[in-house]
Input
Amino acid sequence: MSKLGKRRKICARFSLDLIMREVECGFGDANGIQGSQILINCGPIIDVQIGYDPNFDINKIHISGLPKLGQKKYRALIDTGATGSSIDKDLANSMGLHIVDKGSMIVGSGVQEFDRYLAQIYVPSLGWGEHGFFMEYI
Output
């Protein structure tokens, strides 16, 4: 247990419907380089909206709708093997996200503590989002 006390996991996915959607993400051929090679080098990328709407209530999504995150879209890397979500520290600071906790992560040099932010991320092309903790990425 950390010095912050026992943590409860706050992470919830949200959608206005239960339809399973598919969307293309990644890269097409560009400047003589095959999209598949760019995908290997950069990973699958998709446009998302991210921020924090303090008035968003996941239990009332069908009444109040999606969180209000603004219209700006950011490029996000999809890591299907990740156990959690992360956000660039500079991006989190520029968006005014608040640090709400600290969490531990295993890195090459051992276990390290990182700040965690509470945020929502929404993938417009999938009509899907997530509300929860995002570990800082330096």
User: Anything to note?
Assistant: The longest strand covers residues 110-123. The helical segments are 35-42, 61-64, 89-94.
